[in-house]
Design a protein that fits this description.
This protein has helices at 36-44, 51-67, 106-109, 119-123, 151-163, 198-209, 213-217, 222-233, 256-261, 264-272, 292-298, and strands at 2-6, 16-23, 28-34, 76-82, 89-95, 99-104, 128-135, 138-145, 167-175, 181-191, 236-246, 277-281, 287-290. With 299 residues, the protein is an alpha+beta fold. The radius of gyration is 21 Å and the shape is elongated. Keywords: Chaperone, Cytoplasm, Disulfide bond, Redox-active center, Zinc.
Length: 299
């Protein structure tokens, strides 16, 4: 049986709320999210991943999920992380409507000894981040290095290098001994124009000093979250919410182009052997089957 692979965009499973707030006399934009379900959806499609790769993918997707809350209209943000081994890459994408997807490329998935490496070792000293951001008619591309060898710290560094905007990203992913996901949360803080730089350092210190910060912030009532923010950061005002969810919009029609990429001999051989052709989406795990009748029409 002939098999094809296609990296596409992917099906809403559940929505996770991004809470948006202003703190420190409205000088800092601060967002936070419990995206546990979103990562469960991602990990369900990557069950055999060793723990270091699971954290690498999880932190990338978690960061993109909260950054989706910064996008507007029909904006989209595409992220490509190239590790020090240039064949090893991580891809993720976020849209303004909260749709998020991400995956590791085949070369990274097939790499050996990843179970024994830390996330820092996997990234290495010469990793690179490429970001494409904007709408279809107005996009810009930026490439930055990864001096911290850390996914969230270096995505935050992208904002500093590319936008000259001091930014803090924090992702907390808890796995049990067997590698199953217990919880996932993310926090994003960015200085607004005119705010003194030391305020962002104070936010970092408060987050590090409160390991249970997300249990305080993720309250059922918005007023409770606002009160928790005020207790932590001195003053706060919640200004809105948005959702973030795993999404893959793949369809059978997307794979016709890949069928046409097969040689005439390959298609003819499949027809002669009465074999179907399978096309597999690496993001959502769906498999699309092209039967004999469809291939004969194509041929």
């Amino acid at each position: 049986m002939v098999k094809l692979a296609y990296f596409c965009k992917g099906g809403i499973v559940v929505q996770n709320a991004i809470v948006k707030a202003l703190i420190n006399e409205e000088q800092i934009r601060l967002y936070f999210i419990d995206n546990t379900q979103l990562l469960r959806d991602i990990y369900a499609l990557n069950q055999e991943l060793p723990k270091p790769l699971k954290l690498l993918l999880g932190k990338t997707v978690s960061a993109m999920s909260i950054l989706s809350g910064t996008l507007k209209g029909n904006q989209r943000m595409s992220l490509q992380v190239t590790l020090s081994n240039p064949l090893h890459k991580i891809f993720a994408e976020a849209e303004a409507n909260g749709n998020v997807r991400g995956y590791l490329n085949e070369e990274l998935l097939r790499s050996s000894n990843t179970e024994e490496k830390s996330m820092q070792d996997l990234i290495g000293p010469s990793g690179m981040i490429r970001v494409i951001k904007g709408s279809e008619m107005n996009q810009f591309t930026s490439i930055t290095d990864m001096p911290n060898q850390h996914i969230t710290d270096d995505i935050a560094n992208y904002f500093v290098q590319s936008d000259q905007t001091p930014t803090y990203l924090y992702s907390d992913i808890q796995l049990d001994k067997g590698g199953s996901l217990l919880s996932s949360h993310a926090l994003y803080a960015q200085l607004l124009p005119g705010a003194p730089p030391h305020l962002l350092s104070e936010v970092k210190m408060i987050v590090k000093a409160n390991p249970d910060i997300f249990s305080k912030l993720n309250a059922e009532e918005a007023s409770d979250s606002e009160e928790a923010l005020t207790q932590l950061f001195g003053d706060a005002k919640i200004i809105g919410h948005s959702s973030s969810q795993f999404f893959c919009g793949c369809s059978k029609e997307m794979f016709y182009g890949m069928l046409y990429s097969l040689s005439e001999e390959e298609i003819k051989r499949s027809i002669e052997r009465k074999e179907d052709i399978e096309a597999f989406c690496h993001i959502c795990g769906k498999t699309y089957t092209f039967e004999q009748k469809e291939m004969q029409q194509l041929f």
